[in-house]
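ZP: hey, is the coenzyme A complex queued? I don't see it on the tracker
AM: it wasn't, my bad. submitting now with these inputs:
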Amino acid sequence: MDIRVREMKEDDVDQVVEIEREAFTTPWSREAFMAEVNKNKLAKYMVAEVDGRVVGFGGMWLILNEAHITNIAVKEEYRGMGVGKRILESLIYYCALKNIDSMTLEVRKSNMVAQKLYRKYGFVEYGVRSNYYTDNGEDAIVMWRTNILR
Ligand SMILES: CC(C)(COP(=O)(O)OP(=O)(O)OC[C@H]1O[C@@H](n2cnc3c(N)ncnc32)[C@H](O)[C@@H]1OP(=O)(O)O)[C@@H](O)C(=O)NCCC(=O)NCCS
């Protein structure tokens, strides 16, 4: 499968919102993604394309020398095919280009697939935020990847 990863543009937002709605119980709105793409100077979002269709996306906020991953999601029928890995690799690569040495994220305690993906790329559990998710009161695991530049 030929996966192409590139920067997210305004034209991608409708497809991204569809994937976001499929993936998360409290999805971000179309307006939120439009603001991320057009207004938020700290935001960097990538999409993965297969045959010209957006099949996944991921983004982060770059704050000083740290990056905070906001969301990563892959269209259901394209999961388990390496798309998530390619998106995460592109975010890490971008951080390295920008001299950013650490990345962090929150992930649901029950989301073993995502945790496995993050661990594969050197993310380590640093703590827990209790009752972080408002929909079901689930805890968030806080993970960090350090030494990106080493
Ligand atoms: C998490 C998510 C982005 C992963 O994307 P993906 O394209 O399916 O992942 P990949 O195919 O690149 O696999 C990456 C790694 O995740 C793990 N993984 C993927 N599918 C898995 C499964 N069904 N069971 C266990 N581990 C799995 C593996 O470690 C895999 O690496 P490997 O194939 O080298 O062993 C995707 O499952 C998704 O969109 N989930 C819903 C949204 C979500 O939970 N986002 C994360 C929020 S923090």
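AM: back. The first helix runs from residue 13 to 23.
ZP: great, adding it to the tracker
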